[in-house]
Design a protein that fits this description.
Chain lengths: ~120, ~110
């Protein structure tokens, strides 16, 4: 069975602070995909990143960066210089191998509140 | 905007009734998945449709059923509604056969009273 744990229920930061959202996963698959989605108050899940289990390189996209460590089954997400528009619920998710990328197992989410 | 559209956006039903939710997948996508998101929780996988057949199901009872049409759009049907069925229902479309992510619609918020 697959499982995703996001231990941080809610995080509050002041604008321009850096913040890291933690994600720990469990799976018996040797190949899998990891994802991060953002859910603003409107409800739609916005795709942020997909990472193949064979690719452990860290990735940076603007103010966003992701740290994938297979040895600790973690896929953490860092927002640098946070902004009020970053306020949302963030979900980490796990999927089986290629072809079933939409059978996602989600964590319970971390609500990020960025204030001025 | 993802190109995945769901209707209706909000719905109120009475316990015991039946409901049909609709999803139009993104152009070029052949797979539709449905998720239930209870308040304060992460989305839970209900089932997936590929080539008009159910292709995997989560831990949901048979009163949750679906259809996929030749144009890849999909319906989610829920019979004998219960109060606990109140949730945001999300549809996601993707391409099976390639390494693509799933794109989500804005969801249908169902309230059962």
């Amino acid at each position: 069975a697959q499982k995703v744990t996001q231990a941080q229920t809610e995080i509050s930061v002041v604008e321009k602070e850096d913040v890291t959202l933690d994600c720990v996963y469990e799976t018996r698959d040797t190949t899998y995909y990891l994802f991060w989605y953002k859910q603003p108050p409107s409800g739609e899940l916005v795709f942020l990143i997909r990472r193949n289990s064979f690719d452990e390189q860290n990735e940076i996209s603007g103010r966003y960066s992701w740290n994938f460590q297979k040895s600790t089954s973690s896929f953490n997400f860092t927002i640098t210089a946070s902004q009020v528009v970053d306020s949302a619920v963030y979900f980490c998710a796990l999927s089986p191998p290629t072809g079933t990328a939409s059978k996602l197992t989600f964590g319970t989410g971390t609500r990020l509140q960025v204030t001025l | 905007e993802t190109g995945v559209t769901q209707s209706p956006t909000h719905l109120i039903k009475t316990r015991g009734q039946q409901v049909t939710l609709r999803c139009s997948s993104q152009s070029g996508h052949n797979t539709v998945s449905w998720y239930q998101q209870a308040l304060g929780q992460g989305p839970q996988f209900i089932f997936q449709y590929y080539r008009e057949e159910e292709n995997g199901r989560g831990n949901f009872p048979p009163r949750f059923s679906g259809l996929q049409f030749p144009n890849y759009s999909s319906e989610l049907n829920v019979n004998a509604l219960e109060l606990d069925d109140s949730a945001l229902y999300l549809c996601a479309s993707s391409w099976t056969g390639g390494n693509t992510e799933a794109f989500f619609g804005q969801g249908t918020r169902l309230t059962v009273v």
